[in-house]
Amino acid sequence: MSRVALIGTGLLGTAIGQRLMQEGIEVAVWNRTAERSQSLLDAGAKAITKLEFAAESCGAIITVLRDGPVTKKVVAELGDLAGRCVIPMGTMGVAEISDLGNQIQQQNGRCLEAPVLGSKPQALSGTLLVMAGGEATDFAQQQSLLTCLSEQPIHIGPVGSGAATKLALNQLIASLTHSFSLSLQLIQRAGVPVETFMNILRTSALYAPTFDKKLQRMLDHNYADPNFSTALLRKDLRLFLEEATTAGLQEHGLTGLLSLLEQAKGTDLDDQDYCALHELTVLP
Ligand SMILES: NC(=O)c1ccc[n+]([C@@H]2O[C@H](COP(=O)([O-])OP(=O)(O)OC[C@H]3O[C@@H](n4cnc5c(N)ncnc54)[C@H](OP(=O)(O)O)[C@@H]3O)[C@@H](O)[C@H]2O)c1
Question: What number is the average pLDDT over the span 232-251?
């Protein structure tokens, strides 16, 4: 398989790069803040010094950037894509990916969106859930690359279907974390031992594995070393709400949650693990 360009080496992008190299794929990297690519360069990745030459030397281009507008701007800087497939893996809105898909076509490229569920550990172990959207032929061509990152990448449908699926899942991340935090806060204030509550919850139909994954962090109020930040969860919930409004859904239940997440803006919580939402479910 020829070299892959990896554009965006933040938290998720770096883990994706590490995994691809472990799988024997030659990777060339670019990041706005060059130092954030250093660990990949030290591990043998090539540096992309000029975005406009990335397509020339790479078979496919993966982007793992913050959001839709950033991805659109950075992809524009790639210039002529010379028929290459661009695979945006960051989370963005349905309209945003569709707009990006058109731009990629105008740049003489093909777009296969591939948003993911899972984080750094899953990227490193190749167990991300990949939800691809685009032409079936592009999916077939990129399947072996995607299989390095996911045991079973799924082709959902056309461009936009991956984004819709990903946002639907991230709405669950926000809502489940919020619900669990509120219940935990009440239990603790009522003097019920947390383990008693958890033992009941674990045997019930209400249990979700994410509760145990986040329990200790919430009890310790420790949100350091995040896999996914509060700021990005807020971005995704806002995107979900935009889609929900367009789809004619009743979004009132979620607007309160978004306004809670807005309170993290400008505080330490924003760059920390998203379950820092737990700090916001008590009145100040
Ligand atoms: N982390 C996860 O577990 C996870 C899971 C699924 C999906 N995602 C999605 O994947 C994407 C990346 O997430 P992440 O956790 O890796 O975030 P991150 O660590 O904050 O990385 C964000 C990336 O976007 C770049 N960026 C931000 N603003 C930019 C700008 N104006 N111009 C150019 N580049 C810019 C950053 O470059 P700098 O280093 O220069 O800031 C960095 O490469 C997001 O869409 C996120 O929602 C993340």
Answer: 96
